């Protein structure tokens, strides 16, 4: 549905987006992840036709952003990072206003607003002033605005930025609901959220795509080993290193910040074989150390993200 080919954007000398290739199928929920300044917003702005690329192309269905800016804008609902709302208006009036400028007839307006009120959970705030709403509620109104013309594609720039955990879950549920019918592209810093909300994650760093795939596939693609977390009492770090480092399959032993003076917390990077865990446990049993914790650290998206975007 969306084909991005060698998309590049320079701001004077600065290359913000560097030859990105991306294909997005209808109905996907895509999370664009990256550290600050990675080029996420710039990419979204080019996708929405907000500005043109320096080079490369974007085709959405049969349209190109260069030649068919109006048609592309009709296909996309865009919620920028700060939702552009009129704070002096009531939610009801605001949605009516947006529907009118989108050219909806009175009947369509009524039906569409009713549907959006349902999806975005706005029923109880329709007669409140937008300026008085919490950030999470404002964001829901922003999503309703972006969805007013029933676009096929919804683009959300950091939709959960600055929201509290409850509001994040609410917006996540709304995005999932919308994603049942639409193609959704969102950017976020919150990795667990991308993991929970998106079918597919594209990690972008310094303007380039460094990983692209379903979360599970990304997890598998970055190394096959595992990290074991161990917490011990009555153990000194150098003793632990000499005892455990020699075990076949233990690749490194790293000290974590101490929990307290008596406890030692370490992470072992291992080859991932179950026999390695057994060997570690047997080695600890031979000592006077008290084993307080022994568990695998799950390879979270956060670790993967750090691995892929760390300097050098
Ligand atoms: P963040 O998560 O902080 O919003 P981002 O991944 O969205 O970052 P962009 O906002 O696309 O990144 O910025 C990419 C690079 O382009 C950054 O170095 C930024 O400073 C620069 N940049 C962005 N917008 C402009 C602009 N209008 N003029 C000049 N440079 C810009």
Describe what this molecule looks like in 3D.
It is a single chain. This protein has 312 residues and is α/β, with parallel strands linked by helices. It has 11 helices and 14 strands. A hairpin with a 2-residue loop joins strand 9 and strand 10 (208-213). The radius of gyration is 25 Å and the shape is elongated. The relative contact order is 0.13. It binds adenosine-5'-triphosphate.
Key features?
312 residues; binds adenosine-5'-triphosphate; alpha/beta; 11 helices; six-stranded mixed sheet; four-stranded antiparallel sheet; elongated; 36% helix
Give a quick rundown of the structure.
It is built from 11 helices and 14 strands. It is of the alpha/beta class and 312 residues long. Strands 6-7-8-3-9-10 form a 6-stranded mixed β-sheet, with helices on both faces.
What is the β-strand count?
14
Q: Write the element-wise H/E pattern from the N-terminal end onward.
A: EEEHEEHEHHHEHEHEEHEHEEHEH
Counting H and I runs of at least 4 residues, what is the number of helices?
Answer: 11
Using only CA atoms, what is the Rg? 25 Å
């Amino acid at each position: 549905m969306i084909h991005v080919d060698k998309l590049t954007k320079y701001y004077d000398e600065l290359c913000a987006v560097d030859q990105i290739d991306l294909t997005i199928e209808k109905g996907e929920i895509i999370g664009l992840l990256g550290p600050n300044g990675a080029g996420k917003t710039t990419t979204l702005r080019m996708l929405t036709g907000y500005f043109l690329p320096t080079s490369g192309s974007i085709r959405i269905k049969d349209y190109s952003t260069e030649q068919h800016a109006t048609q592309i804008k009709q296909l996309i609902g865009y919620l920028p990072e700060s939702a552009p709302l009129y704070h002096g208006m009531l939610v009801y009036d605001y949605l009516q206003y947006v529907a009118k400028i989108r050219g909806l007839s009175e009947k369509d307006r009524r039906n569409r607003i009713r549907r959006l009120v349902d999806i975005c959970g706005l029923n109880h705030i329709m007669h409140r002033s937008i300026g008085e709403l919490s950030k999470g509620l404002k964001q829901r109104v922003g999503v309703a605005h972006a969805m007013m013309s029933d676009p096929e594609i919804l683009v959300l720039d950091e939709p959960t930025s600055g929201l509290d955990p409850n509001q994040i879950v609410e917006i996540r549920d709304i995005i999932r609901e919308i994603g049942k019918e639409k193609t959704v592209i969102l950017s976020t810093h919150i990795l667990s959220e991308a993991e929970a909300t998106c079918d597919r994650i594209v990690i972008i760093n310094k303007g380039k795509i460094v990983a692209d795939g379903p979360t599970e596939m990304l997890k598998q693609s970055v190394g096959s080993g595992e990290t074991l977390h161990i917490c011990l009492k009555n153990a000194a770090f150098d003793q632990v290193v000499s005892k455990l480092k020699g075990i076949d399959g233990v690749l490194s032993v790293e000290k974590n910040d101490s929990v307290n003076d008596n406890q030692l917390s370490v992470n072992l990077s291992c080859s991932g074989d179950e026999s390695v865990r057994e060997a570690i446990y047997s080695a600890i049993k031979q000592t006077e150390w008290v084993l307080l914790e022994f568990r695998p650290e799950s390879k979270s998206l956060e670790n993967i993200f750090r691995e892929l975007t760390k300097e050098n």
